[in-house]
Amino acid sequence: MLHDRILVAPDQDSSERRSSSGIVIPATAVMGKRLAWAEVVAAGPQVRQVAVGDRVLFDPEDRAEVEVNAADYTLLRERDIHAVSQPEEADSSTGLYL
Predict the structure, then answer these.
(1) How confident is the model at residue 88 (pLDDT cuts 50, 70, 90)?
(2) How do strand 17-18 and strand 24-25 relate by DSSP bridges?
(3) C-alpha triplet 15, 39, 34: angle, nearest 5°
(4) CA-based angle 4:10:13, to the nearest 5?
(5) Does the keyword Amino-acid biosynthesis apply (predicted)?
(6) Of the candidates 78, 63, 60, the residue with the CA atom closest to the CA atom of residue 1
(7) What is the mean pLDDT of residues 9-34?
(8) Radius of gyration of the chain (CA)
(9) What is the pLDDT of residue 16?
(10) CA atoms within 13 A on the CB side of 78
(11) Which CATH superfamily is domain 5-14+32-85 in?
(12) How many helices (H) and strands (E) does the chain have?
């Protein structure tokens, strides 16, 4: 990866969604602008806010798709990312002091 580019693997389960009441919303349903989650696979040397393994939120309309070894990826700039969700540590404490 070069400069501030990030390679992400989009979530495959984002095509169909369920409402809070359990109704299945198909991928063909037209809704307002919706952001998508993806996992960072690779990052360029000038990327500061994102690490490999993080989940990022991005606009699926502003993307460049690429296929590598028969797998689909999305190429983004760091500035195109709206949010970062880092993986939760397994043995994290509750933060309470006794």
Answers:
(1) low
(2) antiparallel
(3) 40
(4) 160
(5) no
(6) 78
(7) 68
(8) 16
(9) 60
(10) 16
(11) GroES chaperonin (2.30.33.40)
(12) 0, 8
pLDDT of 59 reads 85
Kindly state the DSSP code that residue 87 receives in the 8-state scheme: P
Q: Which position has the higher pLDDT, 56 or 25?
A: 56
Torsion-angle region of 90 (φ positive above 0: left; ψ -120 to 50: alpha; else: beta): alpha
If 0-12 CB within 10 Å is exposed, 13-18 middle and 19+ buried, where does residue 59 land?
middle
Q: How many residues does the chain have?
A: 98
User: At residue 14, what are phi and psi to the nearest 5 degrees?
Assistant: -80, 0
Question: Higher-confidence residue: 41 or 66?
Answer: 41
**Residue 58, helix vs strand vs coil:** strand
Please check the confidence at residue 98 and state whether its pLDDT lies above 60.
no
pTM over 0.70: no
DSSP reduced 3-state for 12? helix
